[in-house]
Amino acid sequence: MPTSNKDKIRKLLKGIETGDPEAVTVVKEDKYIQHNPLTREGNIGLAELFKRLAKTSPKVEIVRIFEDGDFVFAHTDYDFNVVEIGFEVFRFEDGYAVEHWDNLQTKVDSPNPSGHTMIDGLTKIEDLEKTEENRALVRKFLEQVLLQRNFDQLENYVEAEGYIEHNPSMEDGFPALHEELSSNNSRDYQIIHRVLAEGNFVLSVCEGTKEGTHASYYDLFRISKNKIVEHWDTFEEVPPKSEWVNDNGKF
């Protein structure tokens, strides 16, 4: 049976635990474009990274994994020298991973005010026939609410009752979300780079600033009955270009 692209990424990410160079053979070295500014390109770059990380006895848990056409995207729990929650995005061509983006945030072990962690919650993929409808919903939410800051439109996109929040500093419920978004000017979403979806899950990749610092925002939404009902995210500062080891850019 042919190996699915999801299984190839499971193998690749699990290779971080072992440092096995075989894990990176899912990558097409001569085409591979690396968008993590601190990771070198190609199989050799990944192999070196995995070998170095393996010495720290890392643990990798793939909490959620999705496929959208040529893209595979995963929600991960990493225990390296530091413990981080991440989103990984890979683009495939002819059965090989040829491009990669990620976004990592230090894990907060304690639950948020509503008792949720950064990674718990539902994982089951449903409503595959609504993938495009859900993608469009999230894109409109990003454009109208987060970029244009029309917070009076929030109720058109977010479930009024039962909304679940996994951001470590926020809490459940529509009123809390409205208050956080409308009163917090430190987070500025400026560009939507990508909206990936499979069924009831949609991941957005956005660029902006946080407190004036160049920032990358990855937001994962679960959709039910045409409303956002659950949310996970990671925020990462984009390192200055002087620190990059490739020239491909974060996005």
Task: Kindly report the CATH topology of the largest domain.
Answer: Nuclear Transport Factor 2, Chain: A
Question: Number of DSSP strands?
Answer: 10
Shape: globular
Number of helices: 4
Largest β-sheet summary: 5 strands, mixed
As residue ranges, the low-confidence spans are none
Describe the structure.
With 251 residues, this protein is of the alpha+beta class. The protein folds into 2 domains: 103 residues, Nuclear Transport Factor 2, Chain: A (Roll); 110 residues, Nuclear Transport Factor 2, Chain: A (Roll), CATH 3.10.450.50. The chain is 22% helix and 36% strand. The strands form 2 sheets. Strands 1-5-4-3-2 form a 5-stranded mixed sheet, covered by helices on one side. Helix 1 packs across helix 2. The longest helix has 17 residues. It starts with a helix and ends in a 14-residue tail after the last strand. The mean pLDDT is 93.
